[in-house]
Amino acid sequence: MASKAKKHREELKQEDILQAVVIADSFNVRFTPLTQEKPRVLLPLVNTPLLDYTLDFLCSAGIDEVFVFCCHHADLIKSHIKASKWSKDSSTCQVTVIVSEDVMSVGDCLRDIDAKDLITSDFVLITGDVVSNMDLGAIIEKHKERREKEKFCIMTMVMKRALPGHRSRCGETDPVLAIDVDGGRILHYQNTQGAGKRLEFPTHVFLERGQVALHYDLMDCELSICSPTVAQLFTDNFDYQTRDDFVRGILINQDIMGNMIYLHRADDTYASRVTNLSMYDVVSKDILSRWTYPLVPDLTEKGSYSYGRHNIYLHQENVTLARGCELSQNVVIGEGSTVGMDTHIANSVIGRNCKIGKDVKIEGAYLWDGVVVGDGCIVARCILADAVQLCERVTIEAGCVVSYGCVVGPHRVVPAGTLLSLTPIWDFTLDTADEEAEEDDDDDDASSFASSLDDDDGDGGGGRDDVDGRDSPPADDARQFYAEVLDSLQRGVDEDVRADNLVLEVNSSKYAYNVTMRELNTLVTRAVLEMPHIRAGGDDDAAALTPPQLMLQLKPLLVKFAPILSNYFKSADSQLDCLNALEEYSLGCSSTAAVLAKVLHYLYNEEILGEQVIMQWYTKCQHADLKSQVQPFITWLQEAEEESGSDEESE
Amino acid sequence: MEFQAVVMAAGKGSRMVDLTAKTCKALLPIGNIPMVWYPLNQLERAGFEEAIVVVLQSAKKDVYLALSQCDLKIKLDFVSINDDQDLGTADSLRLIADKIERDVIVISCDLICDVQLHLLADVHRSHDATITALLAPLPKGFAEAVGPGPKSKRRSEKDLIGLHGEDSRIVMMGSEADFEENISLRRSILKRFPNITIYSSLTDGHLYIMKKSVVEFLASKPKIGTLKGELLPYFVKKQFSTKKTTDVSPTDGSVVEVPIPDIFSHQEENKLERLGKEMSSSSRVGDIVATGSGIRCYAYITQDAFCVRTNTMAAYCEMNRQVTKFLKSVVSEKQFVSSSANVNSKAQVGHDSMVGEGATVGERASVKRSIVGHHCDIGEKVKIANSLIMNHATVKEGCNLHNCIIGPSAHIAERAELKDCLVGASQNVSAMAKLAYEVVVDADKLMEI
Questions:
Q1: Quick check: B351 contacting A, CB < 8 Å?
Q2: Which residues in chain A are contacts of B181 at CB distance < 8 A?
Q3: Neighbours of A500 (CB within 10 A)
Q4: Which residues form the W2 domain (chain A) (predicted)?
Q5: Distance from CA of B286 to the nearest CA of A (A)
Q6: What is the rounded distance in angstroms from the CA atom of residue A84 to the CA atom of residue A93?
């Protein structure tokens, strides 16, 4: 069998070999801290590493040669491939791991591939987190046919229908496409994530052709058939970082360069990417309910799982179910696991060698290998990574992630959305959490996993040190920017620099460190507040200044910087940023909290903050202490408002 | 009858001034029949027994006379509007609002179309639509058709129409000129209609079925002038805005707010629909999403029917060339060469041509893809191709006319050669003249342009 396959491969002409490039790195940190020990593609999805789904999918489509491109934890991926069925002689598909530590993006990968000259013909470009059962072979055929007619068709993107709001539409991209109805050519591609309420489309796209379909119901599977020129184009355009950059670049220049991208709609088949924790949840459920057939546990691991009614999958070896335990539906129990008496499990995946005690309730949870759950625990929708131990009567509320090796003490309640880890977690993204919360206008909180970084790690868990006593650490760039702003402001006071020159300085720092406008608003506010403390001698003890002293210091600073503040806080949004920054700072510094009302009053009088914005912030503010501190000012404001308000009404 | 029919025949033909200087647009002949006959004939074929015809005061008599000569059984109610006020189609409809008792079908006099109207009505009924419009691709030949007269860059008047992929609900509408570099769409609309097909190849046939409430609404809104340009886009837009609820605050009893009548106050709620909404646990009732304003604009797209608006010179010319084909499909027995015409046996008249009553065609003359009007006099050895000769015109021997319009009672002297020319009513073209791309009209009329 083996020699036959090899022979067969030799007989093929060079261009008949189907190649695929698997990008095994996500270049983001959505899965931290779970990806601290393993790369994302090796995280278990229904007890099988994610990468195996992608490779299975490619091999079943008749791909001859697969390049797995990895950088983070490359050695783990290498050894995984070595031990897998694809390294055996019987494999029809040759999997090669390419390691490159210095690539930072998909673009870099393809440039590297182009430099190594690995691609000989049309190839499949796919990320290592795709679970799909579509007929890739047919799609490749179609692509080749099209390319014979149309030389400049350099890419076929595969997309799947998913209406807005559908759970398989992962929140990270929100694409809208304009497609020529006649032929399926993509004319315009736009990721509308964060694009606001109105979407803009170039008019000429619609005028040039009779019928153009605008699709908001397609989901990108990050799966595309590319011609060899794609890799070259990445080399020619070194600013292409992601595939989206590439697609946008090609479409903008399509009239000049003539290159075209086509769409293939795979509507009747399954395809999804595990891009974040909520997609992990969605895809796992889809596998359990067999949408991904034949990629289901009883078939992927060749007979090691039995499949029973109500989608109950039990490993054939060493699974012990005690009397009275109930597996209601959509449950997988891995090799060597035991389930105690009167335990109830539903919609969950239990890994290998797990021990689940008596009278436990598990609903919608993902337990990886070696997890121990004590008696009487209640586990809601969450992920418990390898070797997590829950002692007796622990309650894990929905949306928690418990990282490798954490031990949660007895009778503990872990509140919803908690993230537990033994190693410190750096918040790389300064305010994505806020943004996501804002965009989540739909009511599907059911799929949001822990994104808030609480450091309540229970009794037994190792200590994660509180990183910064007062506030969350800004990202590196933001931190440097903050230092620059502080410097500028200090100098502004010491040397009496004019306000508009200071604005120029701050602006240039903004560009130098590439901070967003929101970050700028927040950080500038904070800098002004922090200055009195620094001037008072070191920031080690924030409470060193008494409130009256602080106000004495702060007042001239506010007067001095008022033009700067009014320069930045023109819109309601930016004013709200300022207020939030004030709030955040006051929470960490009691003396600032004490003078907050006065600061607000001053800013209001200087017309830096608008009345409506202040009221809006006040109603949203959740800190009762702070609210009571500013209460006198708010009452004063309301009274003033009523006076002026009655004038307006009579009009 | 379920619908009342209104034919808008008061257009001044502003896109073809040279032709409409002496005759009103509705009476311009197409295949020797006044233009307004075509929509009336279509209504008649669909089973309408009466129709309201809106005409200009000055032309009322002429239209009445012209139509009484055509064999129409449909009962016509002429309503005239003042020439001096520049009234649009919506203004006209507003004027006759008190005559409208039921849902109404509004059709323009320049629509030449063989669509089965019941198909349009079906769309209207099945979606309980507020307005249903007829959309059609341009038939062959019309896109590239050029009218006579000086060569000028054609101003394209494409419409961009966005239809929901599944049920052809109109989601977006506007003419090319309305949009700047970008088209902006609300995300919420895309969320509700995630699959929109945007057409630039379809034209609005100016054939609408409207609910009675639309006419009532129109009566209260004097600012809306035209149906296509203003009313329809307004309704399309209002589909997605929600009713303003006027809540009177209980503390403030002194001010009693009178709810301002708006577009929604004219939408009478369907009893069945309301019952369905109350009893349903889902927010959808049939295909009608309960949320929203209750205004629904739909389109019917003809697949293979012929549909053209003859509101430009080019379209009017091309229609005359293709009219024989169209008439064959619409009227079972139609003589293309009138029995009272005197056609010399040695003259050639093509199957795609028409010769009107009492016309004479001289020896060895040839008429191809052309219309010769009533009582015309075509001399010997005259060659006419792709042209339209209106009533009582004289073309002397040896002339060569190609792609021309010769106005009524015009006189073309011997051996003139005209190519892509327009000769106005009662104009003379001297013998041996050679003209190309020219317009021959009264000098004082030219001043107006």
A1: no
A2: 202-203
A3: 11
A4: 471-647
A5: 19
A6: 12
Q: In terms of domains, do B340 and B295 share one?
A: no
Q: How far is B372 from chain A (nearest CA, A)?
A: 36
3-state secondary structure A13-65: CHHHCCEEEEECCCCCCCCCCHHHCCCHHHCEECCEEHHHHHHHHHHHCCCCE
Asked whether the beta carbons of B159 and B135 are under 8 A apart, the reply is no
Residues of A in contact with B182 (CB under 8 A): 200-203
Residue B260 lies in a domain: no
Has residue B387 got a pLDDT over 70?
Answer: yes
Q: Which residue has the tokens 């005061």?
A: B57
Chain A residue numbers touching B196 (CB-CB < 8 A): 213-214, 216
CATH superfamily of A277-455: Hexapeptide repeat proteins (2.160.10.10)
Does residue B359 surpass a pLDDT of 90? yes
Q: Where are the domains of chain A?
A: 14-131, 277-455, 460-646
Q: Which of A173, A131, A127 is nearest to A272 (CA)?
A: A131
Say which of A163, A181, A201 has its CB closest to residue B183: A201
Secondary structure class of B67 (helix, strand, coil)? helix
Which residue intervals of A343-468 are DSSP H helices?
Answer: 432-439
Summarize the confidence of residues A495-500 as an average pLDDT. Answer: 80
Closest CA–CA distance from residue A438 to any residue of chain B (Å): 15
- Beta-ladder partners of A481: none
Taking contacts as CB-CB distances below 8 angstroms, the residues of chain A near B186 are 197-199
CA distance B228 to chain A (A): 19
Q: Is residue B290 part of a domain?
A: yes
Model pTM score: 0.72
CB pairs under 8 A between A and B: 84
The minimal CB distance from B186 to the residues A197, A201, A209 is found for A197
Q: Which of A494, A481, A493 is nearest to A524 (CA)?
A: A481
| pLDDT given at position A266 | 85
- The first and second tokens of residue A414, run together, are 């872990």
A202 chain-B contacts, CB cut-off 8 A: 181-183
Task: Give the DSSP per-residue string, A391-438.
Answer: -TT-EE-TTEEE-TT-EE-TT-EE-TT-EE-SS-----SSSHHHHHHH
pLDDT digit string, tens, across residues A61-112: 889 999 999 888 889 999 999 998 888 888 888 899 998 878 888 898 999 9
B189 and chain A: CB distance < 8 Å anywhere?
Answer: no
Residue at B202 is within a domain: yes
B231 lies in a domain? yes
For residue B155, pLDDT beyond 80:
no
Composition of chain A by helix, strand, coil, percent to 5: 40, 20, 40
pLDDT > 50? residue A463: no
Query: Closest approach of chain A CAs to the CA of B181, in angstroms?
Result: 6
How far apart, in whole angstroms, are the C-alpha atoms of residue A153 and residue A156? 8
Inter-residue contact A439 to A457 (CB < 8 Å): no
- Cβ distance B183 to A200 less than 8 Å, yes or no, reads yes
Check CB contact of B165 with chain A, cutoff 8 Å.
yes
Contact A206 B200 (CB under 8 A): yes
Give the chain B residue nearest A162 (alpha carbons). Answer: B194
Q: Which residues of B touch A178 (CB under 8 A)?
A: 198
Closest to B200 in 3D by CA, of B172, B180, B238:
B172
How many domains does chain B fold into? Answer: 2
> Is A201 within 8 Å of B160 when comparing Cβ atoms?
no
Percent of the residues in chain A that have a pLDDT greater than 70, as a whole number? 86
**A290: helix, strand or coil:** coil
**A14-131: CATH, from 2.160.10.10, 3.40.50.720, 3.40.50.2000, 3.90.550.10:** 3.90.550.10
Domain that holds residue B117: 4-245+275-321
ipTM for the complex shown: 0.81
Domain A460-646 in this protein, CATH class: mainly alpha
Determine whether the interchain pair A164/B162 forms a contact, defined as Cβ–Cβ distance below 8 Å.
no
* Tokens read off for B113: 């179309």
